[in-house]
Design goal:
The complex is a heterodimer of chains A (95) and B (257).
Chain A: E1 8-14, E2 22-28, H1 32-43, E3 51-56, H2 68-71
Antiparallel strand pairs in A: 1-2, 1-3
Chain B: H1 3-26, H2 35-63, H3 69-74, H4 85-88, H5 99-120, H6 126-154, H7 158-171, H8 183-190, H9 201-214, H10 237-251
Helix pairs in contact in B: 1-2, 1-8, 2-6, 5-6, 5-7, 5-9, 6-7, 6-9
The chains are: A alpha+beta (95), B mainly alpha (257).
């Protein structure tokens, strides 16, 4: 029995043309082709999507949750960065 | 042979192949070698059961004696079932469950469905054509899955290669039955309902042989053995399987929940 575990892949599914791919889970597969096929089997059973992306988990660099103080908290009190002070006239709907 | 009877029998063959193979694949639930393959087997099984429902419902209507899909699936005895012998074989011959055996059996059968459904999509019977088109889309995926795995097993480790070759050696002789033309096949072909059985052999080989080659497996020699499941003469494996599959409906007929 081989000791090699299949690498882990992250799966992203786009539910409809025009929307964005959403992360929906992960799976183990030997290579990219198998990963796409398995994602189709495991994550699109209920017609969840039209497009499947798989990315090796090792290729993803992520922020460290422990960096919350430096990365996230300073954004909370900078309201001047949000475009919320315009008054839209009624004639300009759906902006 | 009277056309209505031939058509009924032909539809039973299509439905029973899907029903029995679907049932066999469902035996993998919870036992798959990997979680993803466990789900894949279940998906294929459900696809096949869905196809069986369509074929058997149509068969019941053609027969015209009021039998619906459930009556046909669960209340026919062994000798009345018309699946080919290949699909009733257990999921492993040397052990109870052998994934290489399951995959190679599926590969051989999926290839057969692939060439058959492509022709059935042009059937003179609109319902048959419609079922064939829908089933063809599902079969396309089944074929890709089983052929890909056959290649991975064959061109894989020493153990996977050994098991895949053993499976192929065991299963090859059961394929001959698929291409033998009997009165039912002939009547269906004459009425333009279905292609002639022997006309599919070349197309089937053209699908299967490249996969076997790429899997670095050896194609077994053709044997004189001819299985007879589609005539209702089954192997010893079908009876035990039916006992489990049909028990509930026979013990509590028409139960509803």
């Amino acid at each position: 029995m081989s000791e090699k575990e299949w690498p882990l892949w992250e799966v992203f599914i786009r539910s409809k043309q025009g929307l964005d791919h959403k992360h929906c889970g992960s799976l183990h597969a030997a290579d990219a082709e198998m990963a796409v096929r398995m994602a189709r089997d495991v994550y699109t059973r209920r017609n969840e999507g039209v497009s499947i992306w798989v990315v090796p988990s090792a290729a993803i660099s992520a922020s460290d949750p422990g960096d919350r103080e430096a990365f996230v908290e300073p954004m909370a009190d900078k309201i001047y960065r949000h475009p919320t002070f315009y008054e839209l006239p009624d004639e300009v709907k759906h902006m | 042979m009277q056309l209505r009877k031939a058509k009924f029998e032909y539809l039973l063959r299509m439905g029973d192949n899907a029903l029995i193979l679907g049932q066999r694949l469902a035996e993998w639930l919870g036992h798959g070698p990997q979680l993803e393959e466990d789900i894949a087997s279940a998906n294929v099984s459900l696809d096949l059961l869905g196809q069986a429902r369509l074929w058997l419902t149509h068969a019941g209507k053609v027969e015209g004696r009021g039998r619906d899909e459930d009556a046909l699936a669960f209340r026919r005895d062994q000798h009345e079932l018309r699946n080919c012998t290949m699909v009733e074989l257990p999921n492993g011959m040397r052990s109870e469950r052998d994934y290489a055996f399951t995959i190679v059996r599926r590969m051989l059968f999926d290839a057969y469905q692939r060439v058959l459904l492509a022709q059935l999509a042009r059937s003179a019977d609109a319902e048959i054509a419609a079922i064939a088109v829908k089933s063809g889309k599902e079969n396309d995926y089944h074929w890709r899955h089983s052929s890909d795995w056959t290649i991975r097993f064959g061109d894989g480790t020493e153990e996977s290669h050994r098991r895949a070759q053993a499976a192929l050696d065991e299963l090859w002789r059961y394929s001959a039955e698929l291409f033998v033309c009997d009165p039912i096949d002939r009547a269906a072909a004459e009425a333009r309902l279905a292609p002639a059985a022997e006309s599919l052999r070349e197309a089937w080989r053209a699908e299967v042989e490249p996969v076997i080659a790429q899997a670095t497996l050896t194609r077994p020699a053709d044997a004189k053995f001819l299985s007879s499941g589609k005539r209702g003469a089954h192997s010893e494996h079908l009876g035990t399987m039916l006992a489990e599959m049909q028990f509930l409906q026979r013990a509590y007929p028409n139960a509803r929940w």
